Structure formats: structure tokens, C-alpha cells
Amino acid sequence: MEALLVPSLAKVDRIIQETPDVRTYRLKFKDDSVTEKFSWLPGQFVEFSLLGSGECTFCISSSATRKGYFDCSIKRAGVVTADIHSDIEEGDDVGIRGPYGNYFPLDDIKGKNLLFVGGGIGLAPLRSLIQYCIDNRGDYKDFTILYGARTSADICYKEEIEEWKKNTSIKVVLTIDKPEDTWKDNVGVVPKILEEVVKPEIANTKVITCGPPIMIKYTLQSLDRLGFAPKDVITTLEMKMQCGLGKCGRCNIGSTYICKDGPVFTYEQLKALPDEF
Amino acid sequence: MSFSTFVTDKAGLQKMYEAIISKHETYAPVEKFGKYDYKKVSSLKECDPDSPIAETMSVKPLFFPRSSKIMKYEATSAGTSILETDQDPLTAQRVVLGVKHCDARGLQVLEAVNKWDYIDSDFLKRRENTVIFSARCDKAGTHCFCTSLDYDLENLDALDIAVVNGAEGKIYLQTRTERGETFLKEKLEKSTMYNVQSTNDESEMKKQYVAFAASFRLKMDYKDINEKMAKRFDSPAFEEASRNCVSCNTCAFICPTCHCFKISDEKIKDTGVRYKSYDSCNNVYFTLEAGGHNPRPAKYRRWRQRSMHKFVYYKERFGVNLCVGCGHCAISCPVNISIFDVVNHIASTPVGS
What we know:
The complex is a heterodimer.
Chain A lengths: L7 E12 L2 E8 L2 H6 L7 E6 L3 E6 L10 E6 L3 H9 L5 E8 L5 H4 L3 E7 L3 H13 L7 E7 L8 H9 L4 E6 L9 E2 L2 H9 L6 E6 L2 H14 L6 E4 L15 E2 L2 E2 H4 L2 E3 H5 L6
Parallel strand pairs in A: 7-8, 7-11, 8-9, 9-10, 11-12
Antiparallel strand pairs in A: 1-2, 1-6, 2-5, 3-4, 3-6, 12-15, 13-14
Helix pairs in contact in A: 6-7
Chain B lengths: L4 E5 H14 L1 E8 L2 E7 L25 E10 L2 E5 L10 E6 L1 H15 L5 H8 L1 E5 L26 E5 L4 E6 L2 H13 L6 E3 L3 H11 L8 H9 L6 H5 L8 H4 L7 E8 L2 E8 L20 H20 L9 H5 L6 H10 L5
Parallel strand pairs in B: 2-6, 6-7
Antiparallel strand pairs in B: 1-9, 1-10, 2-3, 4-5, 4-12, 8-9, 11-12
């Protein structure tokens, strides 16, 4: 028995079909004593197992300020995630280890303007922080969410985004890559909308971004052009991980353990790492 | 705590080993098909504590098994349950005979990663409950370079009791840890059959070390290599150095310090087992993400990771090199790549070219 690697069982309370290939699994531990010990901060992740298929790393996509459950939003991408989508039904049991990793720098963003820039499933880790910040809204100044997806069907958390839009203290900007007949919002890739539509205030603003590698690459360039300092841009890295405990060696970039020192880094910290992600 | 030195002879040592084997769970190098692996033994005849370095596999699997069961589980329509696997009796005292110094150093190096942040208490308990008798080599093997890597007479606390050949058939036993001291003292109190005398004279042990140190073909200055490698992440020489690698991972699987592992499931019908097994950064799938992205898609990048982890990253993080100079990777490599050659070659190339 390798005690560090044995998961706790959780029940899938609800499955929400977000997009054709993304589902959110709402989870509750079967054992109340595990629930009591399980506390997390936005940005942390869990090791999620479908017993018999395997174990994968997913961020927790909800905030601990929403009590009684936690969410993992899972895109069908590889072998295990395909099994998760096809085999898991509401009421089934899954294995969970965690929470692991660091979290978004909650102290640093207090009192600042917040600009969230998300793309596709990259909204999942941001959602945990967005919920946390909404539930502590008084701690922050301007609150902007820019979210893009390839098509309108690929937009995650549609119902929740409608709620965000109704919240007058939050500015929500949505975009899709190409025009669609029924789409009334912005059209164009995230970095373009960031520069041409959002035109964010630089002073006193923290940017929190996550999305596919190509979006991140061009978004970081846009943020540079707009004049954001690398220390004010925060992202979360998606590396292949297995143990989540700083032991198995898989997520190393240089002497950094992404599972322990990350997954949340500032752009300034990322620049100091070897180009291996 | 002060440590003690004793002198005996081959017959005395053998009697002591026999007594240990009869009383304790004892592991020692056992020959099979020309290779020695550490196995549980019931008599001294089965094993050879003086097995040759080049043919002896690492003792690491006694502390970090090649493949271990994380858990068993049952998943049926009625529900899921996690079952305990057979418990490893981590508390039982074990003795291991004939461990090479480089290999014992490997365990010491591995302690760092196993006890930072989350503590792998399985590994640490196995080490705590094991008394290691070393066998210091008299002559270096073709691929040995342990004396180039933090190894010297004053740094032997990786093992519990050092066994060193002296002149005219004399054999020295020196305790190097509290665990070794307690164990050996107790053995010597119980029997006078081992021809053992206490001594303060370490001159023959030192002489043996000087002769041993002079027998090395390979030598390097690791501090110099650490500094030079740190500046050569972008060296194009990694490409040439790794060209023949067939990504078989043998180097990692037999290494005393490699510790990367994978977690995998095997399920037949309703019952499954989850394993923790050795893995290697030389595997193309090691960093392959489900979406298809791979940060190290090319072989030279994986070889760079292997070399830099051993001589730069681990040192930065934990203060020691992740290599003990045992040479086993070079001995076992099917395409004759030697990490000694690779890092020395990379270190000799100009920076930024």
C-alpha cells in the first residue's frame, strides 16, 4: 500500500454537459470526515481517477466559497478522459486525491482591478477564482471577464455566464473565432478582442489568463504590447502530471516542480523557466 | 556518538554473516545468469557479498520497488470499494550485505526527494529499519567514477557498517551510523567466534582507499561540470550525444538514483490493481499530454532533461548530484552511451554555440 497515492472515493452528484466535448462533474466525498478535511483555494488541482481506466490531473473548477461540493470540468481529449465521458454516470464513484499545488496569489490581487482572459476549457481554473472573487466582491475594484471559444457551442458554463452578465458589477466580454448567424457578440480571437474591444486599464490591474497554448502565446504578446508588467500577469500551467506530490518527476521544468511550485505562475516567473512547456 | 573500528579476518567475517543470516531477514547479492541481484537469503552459500561491481544490480528496489501495488479495488454496479493490499512489514528489521558504496550513496541521495514536502514514509521507514553492510571495492570498474562524485573516506554515512579489506587477509569493520554501531556492538557482545578486535588504527583502511582511488580510468571535477552544464541548456551537442539512443529506458531502470515513476491501472472484470512502477524521462510519452502537446517531443530534449536533472536541477533543488558514478547505465546501455561521456562532452562545448 502506497499511502500517499491511495485516493478517497467521491460520488458524482451531477453531470453538466457544457459543450459537445466538455462535461462538468459535480462531486461529493462519500466519507464526511474527508469532506471536512478537504479545503482548497482557487487554482489548486486534484488527481481524479476512474478506477480501472486511470488517474488524471484536473483543476478544481469551483470555489470553496460554494459549499458542499466541488467541480471538475473535463474535456474529452485522451484515453482516460474518453472513458470518463463514456463510462461515468450520475451516482457513480470516482477516486480523488488532493487538493494539490499552489493557488492564485489571493493577497496580491486584493484591492486591484481584475481582468480575466480565458479561452475554451481554460475558463475552468479561472472559474474557481471568479466565483471566489464574486463571493468576496468588495475586495476588488473593476472586474472584467473576457472569454473566447472557437464556436458558440464551445462556450463552457453558459448558464453561469448569463448570471455574470446580469451582475452589474462585472463586465463580461464574449467572443467566438468566426461569425455565426445567431451570434450577436464579438467575433475574433481573444488577443484581438483584448486590444480592440476590452482596451483594459493597465494601472492597478492584475490579469489572470488561461487557455490553449496558442491563445496564451498571443495573449501574452498582446498584454506586453498593452504595457502590462510580467509580474501582473498570472497564468496556470497545464503539464502532464501523475503523483501531484513532487515525487514522480513528470512535471519538472528545470528544478521547478509544477505540481508543487505551481501550477500558478506569474508571466515573470514563467520567463525564468527553461523553454520546456 | 562515536563510531568504532574493528579488525577481523575472512573466516571471522563469514561466521558473523552466517549468524546474521540465521537470525535476521537478510538480503545479499545472489547470482543468476551472470548477474547479481539483492535477494533474501537463508545461508551465506547462496550469495556473494563481494560480488563484482559491474555485474551487481542496484539495491534500490529493496527500498523503492520496481513495481508496487498502490491498492486493489472492486468496482461493480453495486458500488466501488478500495481494498488494502498485502501490507509491507515496514517495521521489520532487515540486514543487507555487500552493498557497494556508490549504491548506498544512491539511497542517501534519494532521501532528499522522498522527504521534502509530502513525505514518502514507506521509503524512509524501509531505510530506517535496514542495516547496510557495505563492501568497499578494491578496484574501479571500466565505467566507475564514484570517487568523482562527493565520495571520500569522510563521507560514508550512507551505509551503516563499512567492510574494507586490509593487508594480509585482514578485514576492517567500521560503524558509520548509530544504527550500525548498535547493531554491530550487539553482535559482538553475543559471540566471541568472529575473531574480532577493536582497533584505532585506520591507516590500512586509508591505504586501501588510496590504492582504490588510483585505479580509476574515469575522473572528473563535478563542481566544474555542474557550473558548465547549467550554462549549456541550449547546447546543440545534446543532439549528437543522444543520436544513437533507442529510448529503451534501461539506464533509468537500473540507476541507483533515478526515481521517476508512473501510476497505472490493471482491471479485469470487477477487480483492479493500481501500480506504481519505474518510468523514465527518456520515454517519448513521459510528458505527452492528452491533447497531443509534448514539451519534449525530440530525443535530444529528453536526453538533455536526463543530463540536466542529474547534474544541475537536482543539485539546485536538493544540494546533491543525482548521479553516484556507479557506471551501470553505461554498462547496460545497448548502444554504448555513457552519461560520463555525455556530460563531459557537453561541458566542453562552447557556450551559446
